[in-house]
Write a structure and sequence with these properties.
This protein is globular. It folds into three domains: 160 residues, no CATH class; 136 residues, Glutathione synthase, substrate-binding domain superfamily, eukaryotic (Rossmann fold, 3-Layer(aba) Sandwich); 73 residues, Dna Ligase, domain 1, CATH 3.30.1490. Helices cover 36% and strands 23% of the residues. The protein is α+β, with helices and mostly antiparallel strands.
């Protein structure tokens, strides 16, 4: 495909192929569609693409049959924007330590403060993350750059690391051949595997610390119930690449003569799935967390301590002029174009989306339909209220709750989520189209970008909220 293709510049797939993926699927005979649907569902369940309920029973995670497709320059732009935001996040620990205003915007629990006071050593090592940026964009729009909005950064416990490569493989195996029968020039390949993104981050950090060995621990409690099971799969993948890797409970790590150990195995670097607040609470209950504390203090833990700033109110730091001097021109450009205006709910004067001074609460009441109220640090899509979909009284109660619980709620400018038609196929192969809201989860390292696609018919898109997963592939 020529480099000047409209799709590679951000146009839609119809411009490149003369059709759409939905149009191609509509050409597939019903019997073939029904068999394709069954094959995807069967392999998804067999390969553990499931969500475990609170009673630890597996629920198949719906895999939407049509992939989302992006072009090379779209991938490059998303990678550059996410890396720019990641660099900005890396400054937050030092900013929090130095600025009382930053500490007001990014509140921490007392036990978190104690651990940071004990473990954080400014300038001792650089801050690194393995996390996931959640964003929305419409690849098929000529204005896809303008449509790209980031909603939050999950710098710890980012799910989808096993899901992404597995659903990509399933869709490439079953769906893409059916599409290529109708469009031979539809050449698709996966984006990067998130586990390779993680491996690059861990290896870069090990090299920066000049470690002479590379034994890896993936730290996640082994008694967790519910959610997506990925750590055992990820351990097996890293071992298949020749990496000495173990899935450990952080309480199983021991510090022996200045070295971390898991049983008889020496450990050099740790990927953690847990916030300091959670770890510190376990320590208060009597568990020995000295090894993970050593890892955090020495930079041998990914994400490093800057990963504690998982607040939605990070975007207040990024969208307030008072903090502008801490960030580069490129960082401020990405903030301006791709981040929603965000403020902690409180009775205060601040700057509005246009930069003018406002009284936050009266202004929010007057502009309810343009706003969203969110928990500052929750995850899984819980607690999100869209102002346009609730009454003025319900919105007022949300604001009152935010004022009564300082630092726990934010108000954010509403950003439209990309809406796309996806095929819905019944057991007989009859195909219809249904509209889904779609979001992306971006995993980045210096060289790589992995993408988790999610879709739901609800406006809050999350697998925990009974959404589905979408393969996101790159057009060659």
């Amino acid at each position: 495909m020529p480099s000047g293709s409209p799709f590679l510049r951000g146009g839609n797939l119809r411009d490149s192929l003369g059709t759409t993926l939905n149009g191609l699927l509509q050409r597939v005979p019903r019997e073939e569609l029904a068999a394709l649907k069954r094959a995807v569902e069967r392999e998804g369940f067999e390969r553990d693409i499931v969500y475990y309920d609170d009673d630890n029973q597996p629920r198949p995670m719906p895999i939407l049959l049509r992939p989302r497709v992006l072009g090379g320059n779209q991938r490059n732009y998303l990678h550059r924007a996410a890396r720019t935001l990641e660099h900005a996040h890396a400054k937050l620990l030092q900013l929090w330590q130095e600025s009382p205003l930053a500490r007001e915007v990014l509140p921490l629990h007392e036990r978190e403060r104690r651990w940071l006071a004990e473990l954080a050593r400014p300038g001792h090592h650089h801050e690194v993350f393995f996390g996931r940026f959640d964003a929305s964009t419409d690849f098929g729009s000529p204005d896809w750059v303008k449509s790209t909005q980031f909603f939050e950064f999950n710098p710890l416990g980012a799910g989808g690391t096993y899901v992404v490569p597995t659903i990509d493989d399933i869709v490439l195996k079953h769906v893409v051949p059916a599409l290529r029968k109708r469009a031979p020039t539809l050449l698709l390949e996966p984006n990067d595997d998130p586990r390779r993104v993680l491996l690059e981050v861990l290896a870069d950090q090990a090299r920066s610390l000049r470690l002479k060995r590379f034994n890896v621990a993936l730290a996640q409690y082994k008694d967790l119930v519910g959610g997506v099971s990925e750590f055992e799969h990820n351990q097996a993948f890293l071992r298949s690449l020749g990496i000495e890797c173990w899935h450990v409970d952080p309480r199983e790590l021991r510090l022996v003569d200045g070295e971390m150990r898991y049983g008889d195995h020496p450990i050099d670097i740790v990927y953690r799935d847990h916030e300091v607040n959670d770890l510190a609470q376990k320590e208060e209950q009597g568990d020995d967390l000295s090894a993970i504390k050593f890892a955090l203090a020495s930079g041998r833990c990914v994400s490093t301590l800057a990963g504690e700033f998982d607040h939605k109110s990070v975007f207040e730091i990024f969208t307030r002029a008072e903090f502008g001097e801490f960030f580069t021109l490129e960082e401020r450009r990405v903030f301006q174009h791709h981040l929603p205006w965000t403020r902690i709910v409180r009775d205060a004067r601040t700057s509005g989306p246009d930069g003018a001074d406002i009284e936050l609460l009266p202004w929010a009441r007057a502009h309810r339909e343009r706003l969203v109220v969110k928990p500052n640090r929750a995850y899984g899509g819980s607690g999100i209220l869209l102002g346009r979909e609730i009454s003025a009284r319900a919105f007022e109660l949300a604001l009152e709750r935010g004022v009564a619980h300082p630092g726990e709620w934010v108000v954010q400018a509403f950003s439209p989520i990309a809406e796309k038609d996806f095929p819905v196929i019944d057991e007989h192969g009859n195909l219809g189209l249904a509209e889904y809201f779609t979001v992306l989860g971006l995993f980045v390292s210096e060289q790589r970008l992995a993408i988790l696609g999610r879709a739901s018919q609800r406006k809050v898109v999350n697998v925990a909220q009974k959404g589905g997963v979408v393969s996101v592939l790159r057009l060659l």
